[in-house]
Specification:
The complex is a heterodimer of chains A (about 350) and B (about 375). Helix content of chain A is about 70%, strand content about 0%. Chain A is built from 15 helices and 2 strands. Chain A starts with a helix and ends in an 18-residue tail after the last helix. In chain B, helix 4 runs antiparallel to helix 11, helix 5 packs parallel to helix 7 and helix 8 crosses helix 9. The chains are: A mainly alpha (about 350), B mainly alpha (about 375).
Amino acid sequence: MKYLSMTNQRLMALASVLGVVVLWFVGRLFPETVVGEIFTTGMVARSLRLSVPIALAAVGGLYAEKSGVFNIGLEGLLIFGAFTAAAVSWELGGSQISQLDLWIAVLVAMAVSAAIAAIFAVFTIRYKANQIVAGLAIWFLGLGFAPFAAIVLWDRVNSPSLNGIDTIVVPGLSEIPLLGPVLFEASPFVPITVGIVILAYLVLYYTRWGYWVQAAGENPEALDTAGVSVNRVRYASVIFSGVLCGLGGAALSIGFSEGFVGRGVTMVDGRGWIAIVAYLFGNYNPLGAFGASLLFGGVNALQIQLQTIGVSIPNRLSGLFPYIAVLIVLAFVGGTRIPSAAGEPYETESE
Amino acid sequence: MNALGRLRGVADRMATASGGERLLIGIGSVLLALFIGSIIVFAAGYDPITFLLFLFWGAFGSAGDVAFTLRKTTLLILAGVAVALAFRANIFNIGVQGQLVVGGFGTAMSIIWLAPYVPSGTLGGIVLMLIGIPIGMVCGGLYAAIPGVMKAYADANEVITTLMLNFIATGVLFVLVDGPLKDPDSPAPKTVDFPDSVEFPSVVLDSSRFSLYGLLIALAAVVVVSVVMNRTAFGYDLRTSGEQAEAAAYSGVIPERMIVSTMVFSGIVAGLCGAVYTIMVLGYYQDPGVTPTFGFDAIAVSLLAANNPIGVVPSSLLFGSLSSGKQFVEINQNVPQELVDGIVGLIVLFVATPELFRMAGRRRGDRE
C-alpha cells in the first residue's frame, strides 16, 4: 500500500516533468500556437530562476528533517538571507558596487542565516523547544527584525534599487541548442543551484556523512551506539539548511531583483513554506525536491507568461497559482513517510 | 472508578501542577524578550528606558489609547481562543488569519445583501447582526474544515495547508472586493458601507471603533469555549487526543473525525473574530490584505497562555498593549514599530522552550 502510493507519487512527478518538456517541444515546433506562445525558452529559463530559492531552501530543509529536526523556519531564514545580502551590498558600495563585493554580500548572507539557524538548533536540540513553534518564531523574527533593520538603515522597509549579480555566459556551452541558453547563459545562481542539488543527492545517498544524517533521523540510538554524536549531526544539518537559505535569500534580493522588499510578508512571499512542500513532494530526495521546486517555479512562470500574452486573469488571482498548486500536491501526496525520529529531541545515555 | 474517569483525573492534575510553572515561564519569556529588545533599541542608537516607558504610555496614556488597546485585546482574545483550542488538540491552526477574513466577509456580505429587506432603525440593525454574525462563524468554520479534512484523510501537514489557505483567502477576497463587489463610489477596494444601524454602541471610552459589547462577546466566547473544553465529552476528547492520542483512540475517539471537528470549532471562533472586526471596527468590508494580522499574533497569545482559553485574556491584554504602544513609540521616539513584531517572535521562541527556564532555574539551585 505504502509502496504503491510512493510509486504513484514518482509517476506523477515524472509525468508532470515530461508533460512540461513535451509542451515545450510542441511549442518550439509550432511557435504560432497558444502552446508556442506560452512555452518559450524564456519561460523555461524563468521557471528555473523562480525555482532557485525554493530548491535551495528545500534541500536545506530536507537535510534538517532527515537528521531529525523539522525546520519549519525556512521562510524566516530566507528573509534574513535576502535582507542581509541587500544590506551588505549597500554598505559595501551602494549602487556602485562591484561584482566581487556582491559575492561577499552573498557569503555574509549565508553566514547570517546560518547563525540564525544555529540559534534555532540550540533551542530545539539543546533546550528541546517544540520544533514547530520555534520554527514559527524564526519566521516571526524574520518578519519583524528584517524590516526593522531596513528602516534603521534606509528609513523605509524596502531597500533602494541595488545592483544585481550579472548573468554569466559560458562560452561554448551556451551554444548547445535548447539547453545552452537556459543553463549557461543565465544567472550564476541557476548552475550553482543545480550543482548543489546534485551534490546534496550524492552526499546523502553515497557517503558516510549522508548515512549519518539519515541515521540521526531514523535510528538515532544505532548511530549513538556506533560512536557518532547524534546531536552534532543534527546541528550540522540544521546549520546547513541555514547556509542554503542564506544563499536562496541572496539570490532573491541581489540575484534576480534589485534589492530587498520588506513590505507585507516581504519579498520571500511564502517561498520557504512552498520549499517544505517541495521536499515532501520530492519524498526527501534532493533530486525530487528540485523537480518539485521546478514545478512550482513553472507554475509561477506560467502565471507571468499568461499575463504577457494577455490572458485576462486578475493579477492577484493568477499570483495564487503556486499556493493552489501546493494544496493540490498536498492533497495527493500528503502522506509521505517522515523520518521516524523527526521532531523528537534525542537524549544520550551519557547525559 | 472507570478508566475514563481515572484518565480525566490524571489530565486535570497535570494541568494544575504545571500551571504555576507555565505562568513563571510566560513571565520570564516576556521579560527576557523585552530585555533583548531593549538591547537592540540601544544598539540602534535609541534610549531603551524611554522605549519601555513609551511602550507603556502609548498603551494606557489616554482614553483613546486605552480604547485602542482594548480593541486589539478584544480581537486577540477571539483569535487567541481559536488558536488555543486547536493547539490543545495538538493541531497547529496557523490559518486563523484566513478563517477570520473569510468569516468577516460572510458577515459583511450577508449584512449588505439583506439590508434592503429589513426595516431601517435599531431593530433592523440588530436583526442584521443576529443573522450576519452566525453566518460569519459558519463561513470561518467551513473554511477551516478544508485543512481539517486534508489533514484527517490525506495526512496533509496542517501548518502548510492553513498557511496556503491564508494566502488564497486574502487574494481571492481582494479580487472580489476590488471587482464585482466594489463600492462604485469609492476609489479604494471596499464594499458599500453597512446601514448606520449596524454597529455596537460604544458604552464606554466613547470610541467609534471600540465597544464594550465587542469585549463582552469575546469574554462570552472564552467562557463558552472553556466550558466546552472542560465540561463536555467533546472537550474531553479534544484534550485527550492532544495530550495522549493513543489513550483517546482507546476510549473510542475516531481521530479523523476529531481533527475535522476541532478545526471547524476553531474556525467558528475565528469567524466570530472576523465578524466582530468587520462590524465593530470597519462598518464595511475592505481588502483583507490590510486586515491586521490577528491570526498570527494570536499564535503568540495562545502560546503565552499555555493554550488555556482563560489565560488567553491576560495574554491578549499584553499583546494588545504592545501593539498600541508600538505606534506611540514610532511616532514619538522614531523607533520602527516592526521592532515590537520581532520582540513578539522572541517571546514565542522563549515560550516554546520551557526547558531553557527549567535549566536556568536548576543551575541557580545547584549553586545555592
